[in-house]
Amino acid sequence: MLNRQGRPTAAGEAGTNEHPTFTGNKALAQVEPLLFEIGRADTTGVDLDEPASFTPRLGGQERKDAIGLPGLSEPETMRHYVRLSQMNYGIDTGLFPLGSCTMKHNARLNERMARLPGISDVHPLQPISTVQGALELMSELARYLMTLTGTKAVSLSPKAGAHGELCGMMAIKAAIEAKGEGKTRNVVLVPESAHGTNPATAALIGFVVKPVPARDDGWVHVDDVKKLLGPDVAAIMLTNPNTCGLFEPQVVEIAKAMHDAGAYFYCDGANFNAIVGKAKPGDLGIDAMHINLHKTFSTPHGGGGPGAGPVVLSERLAPFAPVPFVRAGKNGLELVEHEQDAPEKPFGRITAFHGQMGMYVRALAYMLSHGSDGMKQASEDAVLNANYIRAGLSDLFSQPFGDKPCMHEVLFDDTWLKDTGVTTLDFAKAMIDEGYHPMTMYFPLVVHGAMLIEPTESESKSALDLFIAALRDLAMSAKKGETERFTGAPYHAPRRRLDETRAARSPVLKWTPPAPMAEAAE
User: Fold this and answer.
1) Are 252 and 224 contacting, i.e. CB atoms less than 8 angstroms apart?
2) Who contacts 42 (Cβ-Cβ below 8 Å, separation ≥6)?
3) In 160-310, which ranges are E strands?
């Protein structure tokens, strides 16, 4: 199909047959081609001097032809990315109900602090004497994290949650090897409902993964754990609150069983946002736990970084915390960069430098502005909001683990959609038409057709009421047999439903110019 300019409409473009326009634009909803379609390889909006002569050092692998990147003026570049941003959905657009991801509001105060001179431009290779303020900030953040978790040490350097998992498990492996059990303790227990990064992390560093079976109540039971314990077990990786949105009631008993067996307890801290100020994981018996600063302490989430996943360690693992770390020296704070300079037995280094300073600033600004009572209230409000949604939808949606109260996220399954002709995916796509990003779908895997919703503490009652009303309207529409509302959705997004399976299995990674079209005869 062509628009009035004779240009093919984009595949899957929404509303192309309704009131067509000459440009293809629909008022503020503007069609935006690829940069390769609107740019010109022979021009650029930036003046660059010709480089001085030099000898390449790429061993004959340097590019022989022009790079072929499209050139645009500054206004064209700005318009392109602004228009793309208007097609996107973010936490600043509306309620973002992704479960397990905790898309909470990023306070602008935090952003302002991260941009302060002397912080935003700090460099990891500066002399220590010139970054005493940065080191003090890192030291204070570390103190807060240890206080909130009831632990003895923390490594700030991991760059994200999975990286933090790797750090914590490497500390456990180092502790096991220090006891001379490196060749015998090689099994890690992972609940079937765990985040997929848990078994991947354990396997990455040489452990054998054994699953802990899921029960119908959504909890991990200490009796199931004990059946798997033996001299070959190194650790358990348990999420608490878990990925089903429930607090593990036997967590203390599980920790004791692991310790009695000579093993360690790694806690996935992805859901720490539900218990900050209410419970200290260290008091529950954990030995290591990563903290997603973006989930718990309001640093930006997504976009590939920059991220931060600090890891707190118990007294048993504190000696193995990696370098670098901050400590008090004779001439002020210093950064211990090398293993031989540490008084304990660090397992090595987990990343090149000390981590992402901007994330540290944002997290500490969140902590200081909230205080202990404010962080506790944030946890309480996150749990309250999730249970408010659970109560508001419980008569229409089915809950896989009964009507027990949830923590910061509520989990539904697709039992209620049986015989409607509507799937979890269909329902999620229809949410897009209502102006909402879909909830987390099909996770955790132990629940069929899972719908995991996490409103966080950021949302007001009025925002929750509208969200609940929208989902109730969709649910009643599905039960009335109005399947067209779902199976063709989204109708109003910039693009219609795509073949996501085909896109994942057969991705097109390179743009090629379309074949030239012959002009129509006069």
Assistant:
1) no
2) 71
3) 187-191, 208-212, 233-239, 264-268, 288-290
User: Is this prediction's pTM over 0.85?
Assistant: yes
pLDDT in tens, 19-57: 889 888 888 888 899 988 888 887 787 888 888 999 889
- Determine whether domain 110-366 maps to CATH 3.30.930.10: no
Cα–Cα distance, 347 to 364 (Å, whole number)? 27
Q: Closest by alpha carbon to 208, among 178, 240, 175, 184?
A: 184
* pLDDT (tens digit per residue) in 362-404: 999 999 999 999 999 999 999 999 999 999 999 999 999 988 9
Give the gyration radius of the chain's Cα atoms: 26
H helices within 150-250, ranges in order?
Answer: 161-178, 197-204, 222-228
At 488, is the secondary structure helix, strand, or coil? coil
Give the highest mean pLDDT range of 33-37, 44-48, 112-116, 513-517: 112-116
What are the boundaries of each domain within the chain? 110-366
Q: Which tokens is 443 given?
A: 């996770």
Report DSSP state, residue 521. P
CA distance 265 to 258: 7
Token pair in block for residue 301: 């989430």
Distance CA 401, CA 415 (A): 12
